[in-house]
Known about the structure:
The structure is a single chain. The chain has 280 residues and is of the alpha+beta class. The chain has 2 domains: 2-58, no CATH class; 65-279, Fumarylacetoacetase-like, C-terminal domain (Fumarylacetoacetate hydrolase, domain 2, Alpha-Beta Complex). Helices cover 15% and strands 31% of the residues. The chain has 7 helices and 18 strands. It has helices spanning 21-24, 40-49, 81-86, 140-143, 159-163, 170-173, 221-229, and strands spanning 2-6, 9-14, 17-20, 63-64, 73-76, 98-99, 106-107, 110-114, 121-122, 125-131, 147-154, 157-158, 180-187, 199-204, 207-213, 239-241, 263-268, 272-279. Strands 1, 2, 3, 4, 5, 6, 7, 10, 11, 13 and 16 form an 11-stranded mixed beta sheet that branches. It has a 5-stranded mixed beta sheet with strand order 8-18-17-14-15, with no helix packed on it. It has a two-stranded antiparallel ribbon with strand order 9-12. A hairpin with a 2-residue loop joins strand 1 (2-6) and strand 2 (9-14). It is globular and about 55 Å long. The mean pLDDT is 97. The structure holds zinc ion (ZN).
Amino acid sequence: MRIANLSGRLVLVVDGRAVDVEHASDGRFSADPQAVYERWEEFRSWAAAADLPAGTAFESADLGSPVPAPRQVLAIGLNYRDHAAESGFGAPEGLPPVFTKFATSITGPVTEVRLPADGHTDWEVELVAVIGRRAEGVLEADAWAHVAGLAVGQDISERVAQLAGPAPQFSLGKSYPGFAPIGPWLVTPDEFDNPDDLELRCAVNGEEVQKGRTRDLIFSVPALISRLSAVLPLLPGDVIFTGTPAGVGLGRDPQRFLAAGDELVSTVEGIGELRQTFLA
Length: 280
Ligand code: ZN
């Protein structure tokens, strides 16, 4: 099953067309895309059995984030060995670095993003997992049952702010407006042959700069849910940015950052793509 946020309304995406959930359910489920995660099991049961009307065509530019207002966003650093190495860090053991992307940075999949002045703005394609059931002290073996679905994410990062000062400012440097596009829709885990092995890629102006597979995550989606939920409860509708593979601009020689006019396309196998254009 795929759900999306079309112009602020929750829709099911069926054969590439949008079915409005509030209308199709006679008001049983609200149009608010964020509210559905509170009743995820009930919603899934309804959607699986519902006699849905024909959908309508839509433009991806009209999509918002399928998870527009999470209570918590947990973002994971250094979760692929090749990216940890290019960043000049050792691979994490025990618990990976965790920061947040503040929720105001979340957008839909197709956007224009203003570059912070005097910054070094970089790309990080990531698999995003959205929680569908409260998770507290969850075992790895039970973790996928707490995931509503997966989406493509871009952890856009301004490296000057991120690395300034006596301790890194990961959360601020990664939370400028538009720095957390998520989409183009949410795909439930059952849609994948293996949700633990998905290819992710990103390209700048058509040139591929990142290519990896989620099987190479140091902490897999279930491992992250288990270790994070041992510390704090993960709530329905919470977002986890799971980390990025090698190929970011910071790790290149010479370093390379985004410039006005650049187009960034980020893809995860079996989900879809994000498309960001950068403005001065
Ligand atoms: Zn990241």
